[in-house]
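Quick one, tokens below. Sequence please?
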């Protein structure tokens, strides 16, 4: 039996997280290795970060936040 996930969390790519955090993608990867940001591996190579973890990092004051752009 497979448990279903009813509280799905939005996941963002390393590039998207870097843009939101106003840092380079390499910095986001470093923070993942240092366990400052949680991540999920999707498939063999793709890494995704919970969007709420990115926002929490901004709220804690670790990095400057770029203004959010409406799409």
């Amino acid at each position: 039996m497979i448990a279903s996930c009813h509280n799905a969390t939005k996941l963002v790519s390393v590039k998207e997280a870097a843009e939101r955090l106003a840092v380079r993608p390499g910095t986001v990867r470093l923070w993942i290795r240092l366990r400052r940001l949680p991540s999920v591996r999707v498939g063999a190579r793709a890494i995704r970060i919970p969007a709420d973890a990115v926002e929490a990092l901004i709220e804690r004051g670790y990095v400057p936040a770029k203004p959010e752009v409406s799409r």
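The helical segments are 14-21, 25-33, 51-59. Residues 20 and 69 are 10 Å apart (CA to CA).
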